């Protein structure tokens, strides 16, 4: 039911770690947001949050379940904990923004979906790339019809900034049971982007995995993930950790830029009328038109070149990962009784694709996703 939203958007944060601290900064810097409570199982972290930001803190998230003064519960705890926490909020009909991935296994995602389907409160999975300046521009380009129908999606992804994972020997992200695997943890965003751009669900995945080079990782540190969607479009995602170290735990860069450290993120969208190429680190989008509409023959020409590196943004982080606009939008939607920006059933399908991709690597064959 639609309601008149309150003058400020009231949310509660569960999990005040790396991702949660973005929400803390958002609430601190934006008067539209009212962070009414924070929960974390780490008492010393909560104390620090309270001291640094001044937001009210509670110890256990269960103490928030019945709070009437909260429009949205933002869950940003490790993946393994999502099932228990999300199920409790959703089955009570509470509004939830849940960090991606939905959970650390298909069974846990299914339990969350069962809880949601009982009362269907607001439920959005944190695919925050949908709010990013760069991907919104690509989405607009695809929606304009300039590329025609998307036939091929190609991503080369060699992250550098997570090189610190290598040094965090006790990190939960590289433990398979806790994170659900690298595809769910890191690649789910980019499988979601394909579906968002193309409007088509992925049906087949085939992951080629040669074994890890980083020995203490339980999750895949390098792979090629190929897929085919209902529309017939295909995709290929090549993933491996940076070819050179980017940052140390003390925050200093080994090289002056991601490029110097050989980190890479290049996305190509190949359509039936034209193609787009996005380079995240160079901050450029270039678009080619094949010429069939103009010349009635194959006469490729660059029709657009956007250099975001020359633009100033109020929030530079929103260029790629945009948690601030995501929280604002999700809070506004939940408070007004509007549907989520990401359909829960679509996000569940993406999660099934992620776990099928992990299975495919183990089975050494393609896997269908129903
Ligand atoms: N959208 C993105 O691009 C993005 C980026 C990073 C992380 N994430 C996601 O955000 C979530 C959190 O990741 P992170 O990097 O912030 O992890 P983190 O380890 O830095 O922080 C997790 C926090 O949750 C707390 N916590 C753990 N178990 C808890 C429980 N049972 N109850 C309450 N608090 C608990 C921890 O004490 C810690 O403060 C994960 O799901 C991760 O995949 C998303």
What does this 3D model show about the protein?
By secondary structure, the protein is an alpha/beta fold. It folds into 2 domains: 139 residues, 3-Layer(aba) Sandwich (Rossmann fold); 202 residues, Dihydrodipicolinate Reductase, domain 2 (2-Layer Sandwich), CATH 3.30.360. Helix content is 33%, strand content 23%. It has 11 helices and 15 strands. The radius of gyration is 21 Å and the shape is globular. The two termini are 31 Å apart. The structure holds nicotinamide-adenine-dinucleotide.
Main attributes?
single chain; 370 residues; alpha/beta; Rossmann fold; Dihydrodipicolinate Reductase, domain 2; 2 domains; 9-stranded mixed β-sheet; 6-stranded parallel β-sheet; 23% strand; globular; binds nicotinamide-adenine-dinucleotide
Strand order of the largest sheet: 14-13-12-11-7-10-9-8-15
Mean pLDDT: 91
Strand content: 15-25%
The CATH superfamily of the largest domain is Dihydrodipicolinate Reductase, domain 2
**Count of discrete domains:** 2
Q: Give the names of the bound compounds.
A: nicotinamide-adenine-dinucleotide
Structural class based on helices, strands and sheet pairing: alpha/beta
CATH architecture of the largest domain: 2-Layer Sandwich
User: How far from one another are the termini?
Assistant: 31 Å
């Amino acid at each position: 039911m639609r309601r008149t939203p309150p003058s400020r958007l009231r949310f509660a944060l569960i999990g005040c770690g790396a991702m949660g601290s973005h929400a803390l900064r958002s609430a601190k810097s934006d008067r539209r947001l009212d962070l009414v409570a924070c929960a974390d199982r780490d008492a010393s972290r909560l104390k620090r949050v309270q001291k640094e930001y001044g937001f009210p803190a509670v110890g256990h998230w269960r103490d928030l379940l019945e709070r009437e003064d909260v429009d949205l519960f933002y869950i940003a705890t490790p993946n393994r904990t999502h099932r228990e926490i999300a199920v409790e909020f959703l089955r009570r009909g509470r509004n939830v923004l849940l960090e991606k991935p939905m959970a650390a296994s298909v069974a846990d995602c299914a339990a969350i979906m069962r809880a949601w389907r009982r009362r269907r409160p607001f439920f959005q999975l944190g695919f925050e790339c949908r709010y990013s300046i760069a991907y919104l521009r690509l989405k607009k380009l695809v929606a304009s019809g300039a590329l025609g129908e998307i036939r091929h999606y190609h991503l080369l992804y060699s992250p550098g900034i997570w090189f610190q994972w290598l040094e965090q020997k006790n990190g939960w992200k590289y433990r398979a049971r806790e994170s659900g695997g690298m595809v769910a943890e890191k690649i789910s965003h980019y499988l979601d982007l394909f579906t968002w751009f193309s409007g088509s669900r992925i049906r087949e995945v085939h992951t080629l995995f040669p074994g890890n080079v980083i020995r203490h990782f339980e999750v895949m540190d390098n792979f090629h993930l190929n897929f085919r969607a209902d529309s017939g479009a295909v995709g290929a995602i090549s993933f491996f950790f940076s070819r050179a170290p980017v940052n140390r735990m003390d925050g200093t860069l080994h090289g002056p830029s991601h490029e110097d450290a050989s980190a890479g993120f290049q996305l190509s969208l190949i359509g039936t009328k034209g193609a787009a190429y996005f380079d995240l680190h160079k901050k450029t989008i270039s678009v080619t038109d094949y010429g069939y509409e103009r010349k009635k023959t194959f006469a490729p020409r660059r029709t657009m070149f956007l250099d975001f590196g020359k633009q100033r943004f109020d929030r530079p982080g929103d260029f790629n990962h945009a948690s601030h606009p995501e929280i604002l939008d999700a809070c506004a939607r939940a408070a007004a009784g509007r549907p989520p920006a990401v359909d829960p059933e679509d996000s569940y399908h993406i999660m099934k694709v992620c776990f099928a991709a992990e299975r495919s690597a183990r089975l050494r064959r393609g896997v269908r996703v129903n």
